[in-house]
Amino acid sequence: MDSHLNKKISADLFERLELLGNYLSEDLQAADLSETDLIHAQRELNEITDLIYENRYDMNDRMFLIHEVQALIYWASGNEELAFEQASIANEKCGMYHLTRTTQAILSEKESRKSEYRGKQRSKIKWALLGMIILGTFIFNSDQYVIMTADSNMVSLAEDAGMTYQGKVQFLRSYPTIIDEGEIRSVCSGTDIGKSGIPLGCFDPNTERIYIRDLPTKYDYYERTIAVHEMLHAAYFRSKPNDSILQAINSSGDSASIKKVLKEYEFTDSEEQLDEKHSYVAIYRKSITYDLDQYYSKYLSERSYINSLHRELTADFATQKKQMDKIEKAIKAGFSVADQYYSSHAAAANYGDVYNTNLYYELYENKLNETNRMVKKYNSKVNKYNESISIISGKPVEDLTPQKF
Predict the structure, then answer these.
(1) Among the four 93, 142, 382, 386, which has the fewest Cβ within 10 Å?
(2) 300: which DSSP letter?
(3) How far apart are alpha carbons 267 and 253 in whole angstroms?
């Protein structure tokens, strides 16, 4: 399509959205909206949204208006929870533009009643026809919009992790971002992050946002695993599995590997522990029941792939630890031989045996230098190992101290 025509159509659509938003805002303030008004408003919004999705018109940062208008419709229909959600998204995306006074009032209401309104819904107006329109057409469009307007890097991360359409929606609705170690200590401080104190990521239920720790280049592939882990927290928060699935998760979560990592957390109740198991079972367990595998397939196209990434990481750390153990064993043997040479040197000196005194001291000196070089090599490996050991909630290894003459 000609770029000039594209811009003109985009401007027209923007104007339609703006007019619709102002109309809803003014009539809401005047309490002058009927059921028919809302149905027509929803249809108008759906039509505009479909045009944008189907033709990918250039709306840039004005796309926030879709969320704002939907928030106003939800609010008028009495669905406060969804209105709060859509108004918050609009607020995050509005940039240089301004929200209507009514939308600002919705956000203020959310803040003032955030603690008591989570999970509740007020029923000002309950219209079955409007409910069908909202829960049918718009929710589908809302999911499309989430994916279309998400950060391209996060979309790629979701795809690389093997998330399904529904998995991507859960992940990208949480506005995921990758941040450094210092930032993640701060933003995830209010979540269960384990005794290590350096979380790999977190899902904040208060803001419904996902944060992922920026890993060393060697391990950046594991950010896919973290993304899946946090996405499953978001899915659990928004759509808790049924009782039979929860029982299967609880049973599968009793494996030794999961029990070990769960010791890092100080859970206050079984619900928090079950939430963690919900994520860990998908990543840690190679074999699970058919029903549980079917459940996770809603969010992951191939769970075995994310499981293999976890196994790759743990195998890498196991190999590093094995190499360090081997060097440490050689270091202990080297210092032992050096001590024997020194004892022989001292004995020869007591007998006045000049030849063996010099010989054993030279052997002692050479062995000590050789062993101290191994200590340096060992400590270098330890430093690299300790930089990343928190990724698998492992314990740091202490440096060895070279011996002096």
Answers:
(1) 386
(2) B
(3) 15
Report the range of poorest mean pLDDT among 201-205, 334-338, 383-387: 383-387
Q: What is the CA radius of gyration of the chain?
A: 30
- Residue 327 and residue 357 in contact, taking contact as beta carbons nearer than 8 Å: no
| Domain extent listing, the chain | 3-149, 152-301, 315-392
Contact 59, 149 (CB under 8 A): no
Give the pLDDT confidence of 30-64 residue by residue, as tens digits: 556 677 777 777 888 777 777 776 566 655 556 77
3-state secondary structure at position 177? strand
In three-state secondary structure terms, 208 is: coil
Closest CA to 153 of 185, 126, 178: 178
HSE value, Cβ hemisphere, 13 Å, CA-based, for 144: 14
| pLDDT digits 0-9 by tens, 211-237 | 999 988 888 889 999 999 999 999 999
Distance CA 331, CA 313 (A): 27
CA dihedral 24, 29, 34, 40 (to 10 degrees): 0
CA distances for 159 relative to 46, 210, 265, 306, angstroms: 27, 16, 30, 12
Length of the chain: 405
DSSP calls for 36-81: HHHHHHHHHHHHHHHHHHHHT---GGGGHHHHHHHHHHHHHTT-HH
Position 392 pLDDT exceeds 70? no
Neighbours of 17 (CB within 10 A): 23
